[in-house]
Amino acid sequence: MFLHNLKYEFLTAVRTKDLLIWMILFPIILGGFFKFAFDGIYEKTTQFSTLKTAVVDEADDKNFRSVAESLSAQEKPLLDIVYTDRDNAKKLLNDGDVKGIIYTGKELSLSVAENGIDQTTLKFFVDKYNLRSRVISRAAQNDPENVQKIVSALSEDAETVKEIPLTDGNTDNLIQYFYNLLAMVAMFGSTIGLHISNVNQANLSALGARKNCSPTPKSTGIFAALIASYIIETLCMLLSVTYLRFVLRIDFGNELLLVYLSAALAGTVGVSMGFCLGSAGRLSENAKNGISISFSLLLCFLSGLMVGSMKAVMARELPWFNKINPAAVISDSFYCLNMYSDHRRFIEKIVTMFILTAVFSLLGFIMTRRKKYASL
Questions:
Q1: Of 34, 121, 205, 220, most Cβ neighbours within 10 A?
Q2: pLDDT for residue 94 is more than 70
Q3: pTM above 0.85, yes or no
């Protein structure tokens, strides 16, 4: 009997129009918009890149050329130098083909067209080069015997700080929008869970009236509907992760299998939340659907889907809220997988999702089973 109910509950859920719109088409469309809007921003504004620089070497400074060649030969070169004349250098700068122009002479000078991180880096390089040149020049005048020692000392970078990466994952802060997109897909699973409660209440639908007259135990029908909905929502979540990872090329880190696991569990949270919401009150199915979608969007907003800093605001104003907000817990599970090699934080989020699923499902069962009808 259970398998029979499971089969037809699965077929019923698949035919639900909301499934196609909110959990398949919507994340594909919104994910495409996110990719189009955010593509390349991190690389251009945060990630280190070689600086294209024009050099006007009218003084034929051999020392500068030697330094420039050593910088360009590094694994991650600081400068990509183009030697040219003044007129062409200005044209390259105005066209945006170079970040700045370095002029050689008694001292290096720098010309830039705008202010920014790249231009600040160039200025730091020029100032540092000029400072070292002055030190070597004074040493040559005052203590010529030790010039070579001073040059050697200045040429060695003092390794007082060891560079240790904080994470092997994707450090692009804009990826949080894709985490929250997956959380939204999970939260929209509430529309399927809400449908379960509606079709099992005789006062809300004709199908519910027939089910309550059926000899099949009510708990068996509800349990079969929940399992079918969990399976469908899990498939939607896995499809969303696959689309983001392999079509849009979103980097979720090195733990892709655990990302799939987290996504599957996230789907059960959304379905059970919808089941709980649908079991409360006597509003029509359309009214409950509106409330479910609005509530899901509110949770996603507070998790940072629309405003990336909102989760930090909530952490500052209401530190406890992010720990029980299903959308925030789901997005944090993906974040923890990407950023931390230690799975302790990830396990905490997984346990929280299990608890939320159990609590929502239990409340839904209690509210649905306690309903009695004077007549059908």
A1: 34
A2: yes
A3: no
